[in-house]
Structures are given as C-alpha cells and as structure tokens.
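step: validate -> pass
step: tokenize input -> pass
step: predict -> running
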Amino acid sequence: MRNPIILSRRHVLASGLALGASAALGPLARAAAPVKVAGIHGSPVENAWNSVLHKALQDAAKDGVIEYVFSEGVSGTDYPRAMREYAEQGAKLIIGETFPVEKQAREVAADYPDTAFVMGSSGKEAGDNFGVFGTWNFDGAYLAGMLAGKMTKSNVVGSVGAMPIPEVNMLINAFAEGVKAVNPNAKHMVTFIGTFFDPPKAREAGLAQIDAGADILFGERIGTADAAKERKIKSVGSLIDYTPRYPDTVFANALWNFRPILNAALADVAAGKPTGRDYTAYGLMKEGGSDIVYVKGVAPAEAEAAMEAKRAEIKAGTFEVPKIMTEPK
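step: predict -> pass
step: emit ->
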C-alpha cells in the first residue's frame, strides 16, 4: 500500500449509530456493517457544491449507514493519486468529481474493479464500477428565474458561473429560460470566472454586471451574493440556502440534495450490483433531489402563484424544464 494521502483536513465519522430513517435503501439497510466511503473534494468543503455532497455523506455516517473519510482541496493533478490511495485503503465507494480529469479517472477505476466510483462528471459512465452524476438543480433555477423576471426593474438580470461545462450551462440557461417565460424582453448577462472556487472573483464579476445595469443576480458561484449585498440588490442562490447568510439579499435558492443519489449508489454497492451507470436523475425535483426555497412576499403575489403552479407541474412530471447544455450567449 502507498503512503497515506497528506490532507489539508481529514475527518473520520463514527459509525456506530442506529440506522434511523434509512429503510428506503433496501439491501443497504440490512447490511451487516456500514459501507466504507471516501469523499474526494476538489474544493474546500465550504464550497457550495462540495458542501452538499459532504453533508449528505456526514448524515449517512450519523445514520450508521457508512464510515466516511474525506480529503478536500485536492488539485486536478493530484486527483488520480487520491483515488488510488483510497481504493488501496479499502474504500468500497468513492464519491467525488472528475471534471478536470475525466480520462484519467476512468483509467484509475479500471485498475480497481472491486471499488465503486460515483463521480460528478461531464462524461459518461464506464465499465461496471464507474458511475456518474450531474448537478441537476436546474428545475429550481427555472422557477427562480420566473420570480426574477417579474421583479426586475431595469429589465436586466445577470448570472455568474464557474466555467461553461454542461452542468453549469444547463443551470444558467434554465434560469434565463424562467426569466424569459414571464418577461421575454429582459436581458440576461453571463460571466464565467474560470474556476470552481474564488469568491472574490465572483464578487467582482457580479459588481461588473450591476454596473452594466443588472438589478438581480443569479449566483451559480459563491461570492456573487456579496456583490448584490454591497449594492443593495436582490440575488438568487444555488445548491444551498443562502438566505440565512444574506437575509436582505438572497430571496430564492435553487436547492440540490445529494442524498437520493448517494442512497441509490449505496444500495447498488450493498446488493453487489454494478455502479457503472448514470445516477443523475435521482437529483431531479420530481425525485425529491432538488427544489426551490424562497422568501414569500418579495416577488409579486401573482409571480409567486404562477411559479408555484409551474413547480407543481414539474413535480407531477407534466412539465419539463428545458435542458440546454450549450454555452449561454
């Protein structure tokens, strides 16, 4: 075995708790021992996307379903080595992200056929043990766009994103489509900061959009709401609920919950089924994996009513938010 990874922080959670509300996991709930799971986070776990994964994994550990160890801030160049280290240390399931190392990650997985890898990815699943998932909270982004489209006074809204990969594009495009559905004359500006975690850079991008006329910002990246707060305009958050942190600024959030994806992967591992599949759909709103949360009374009452009606259609499966993966213009 190689030497252990040198971590910026490593945290092992106790796993001797009762299973709690995990009966839905089927074979996993009946497993004799918790599954050993490693999380490899390319950004600090404070980053919104990583925090969603981290919380789901922590909660599963508290439920006694898994034993959890993780690394954070792992660079793309070091990522394949981290995957190998955890596989050699006996992790049965490795959760993480392979956006910057798609080819190399699949090569690692092929070398460890007895380890399940389920990774955030822009690519496809591979073999029996390399599964993928996308961050599909675009349903909530569309609904937030419906509110923003009726709230803007300047008729200009802005979005600040990481980089134009399909998952980010789809999220920002959904927000724009929601705005367009209720306000076809509104202008939508988009800025990519070129990295997944740089709050000061996201703030600067937001300030530039405000200077160009935007009076509502969609923050796909942390830091966008800081610009909105500074200039006293409204903002939409993504992945987690930012309203408690920005009570007078963030009025709506496109939430994403990783636990349904994790549960599905864990059930496959416990049942000895292949994990080389796409788990993305478990994160959709109609599956309970995403939603919108908003502060009532900020948007006009008729805008909230129209949004709630559309939300009900999405949950019922009678309306599908457009999945537009091309780079927003």
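step: describe -> Residues 138-256+290-316 form a domain with the Rossmann fold fold (CATH 3.40.50.2300).
step: cleanup -> pass
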